[in-house]
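FAQ: What does a multi-protein file look like?

Like this. Sequence, then tokens, then the next protein.
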Amino acid sequence: MSMRKLVSFDWAMKKLLRSKANFEVLEGFLSELLREPITIIDILEGEGNKENRIDKTNRLDLKAKNAKNEIIIIEVQYEREFDYFQRILYSSSKTLSEHLAEGQPYSDIVKVISVSILYFDLGHGEDYVYLGRTRFKGIHHNDELQLSHNQQLLFRKQFPHELYPEYYLIKVNSFDDVARNTLDEWIYFLKNGEIKDGFKAQGLKKAKEVFDIMKLPDQERRKYDRYSEDLHYQASMVESSYGVGKLDGRTEGREEGRAEGREEGRVEGQTEIARRMLTEGLEVVLIAKITGLSPDDVETLRTKSKS
């Protein structure tokens, strides 16, 4: 396997894409996805981004302008979590409320577009890009509700779904590595970390330049190497937690009963993995998500380890 030449997209979101000098990369990606020219005006650091470390580093809130010169808010999220449908609902709702000042009419609510780059199997389906919209369909005639004539004049929209948040889910692992169009070229890069010479999608030329590992300052390159190693470590911890749990569960099961033994072994394995993660300095919330233990249980382990 050849050595990786480009940094991963999640690292770029944390370190590189927050700079105005690199907006061209995100503008190209979003323009290909939304099929209209997108211009980023600014990176928004709202209260929703400050609640916890994971939200802040794996999510970008962008104030952007579309082809009609309409101001829209775009959330770009790079995730590996499983409570995701509820997560994006909460996130878009919070973004809406954050950008409506007290005393403003509801008609001033901005359009929110949520873009999720997913590296896990979310739901069941054959496609690798899904678009979610809120549509109002008649239960008797199956017609779609439209805005009234006056509403159409006021909002310059025809359907309610054009006012509501939209959700793009990009299931990277479901992509078959065949780039049929320019959006596929972007998804190929998101999956493989490679930009082929013949790719012409907007933003990829700049991405190839910005994401070049060898162009990173030495200190940043070392940080990226440690970050990549940490991702591999976390993946190994997850695999180990299941493996140790199953192994201990089988042993205990033979002695005390298969069902009870497997459960005890699973918990014991998760606890041991949590202890190892604590020694590596990982955060309690992250350890809880990886191992399945409760944050309180992990905090108890941390307290005991210090005593």
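And here is the next protein:
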Amino acid sequence: MAKQTALVTGASRGIGRATALRLSAAYDIIAVARSASELASLKSEIEIGGGVCSTIELDIADEKAVRAALSGLEVDVLINNAGVATMKPFLELTSEEWHRMVDVNFNSLYYVTHALIRGMVERKRGFVVTIGSLAGRNSFVGGSCYAATKHAVNGFTESLMLEVRDANVRVAVVMPGSVSTDLTPSSGDPSWKLTSNQIADAVWYLVSQPDSVLVSRLEIRPAKAKASPR
């Protein structure tokens, strides 16, 4: 039997890259990101491992470009992973920073998911997984926009889940806590944080459940909190 296809956004690095690699043993991968060189590196790594990977260089915040690139693709699993984060007090946040986070973290969910989910509903199969954040249920200083976009992610995914479940299309959100990636670089020892591979394993857990099972929300965090400096 031919493999099913999984499309991963933000696939060039971090959680997206780890997820594409984790899924590549069971799925043909369509890797989407803005960096052609990093996509080429991922494609090479997947193919060395015996998998199949095609790439699409794309800014998912560009609605017209997304529609042109993705409409009509037959995708079985969609991983909405791409995201950006600028953590700073609201009074210091620029309009450009605000709109970029809203566009990438939230508006792109409409662009990408809308381009692909109609085909899932028509075929009566499919799975949409969005990488959210525990910031989607917490608030913190410097997170006025980032946390707001992640709260929006939760509302979007849960509503969509209820809309399409009877068409045998499953929708879920993964909500990681602190992950060691370059999304939010920090100084100090990152060893207490989760890794991208651990989040990829969580995604695999969701999509590998039997068709009759839907884990619609998965929270994952480091087992221990960051140690206080001495």
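Q: Is there any per-entry metadata?
A: Some entries carry free-text notes. For the entry above: The two ends are 57 Å apart (CA to CA).
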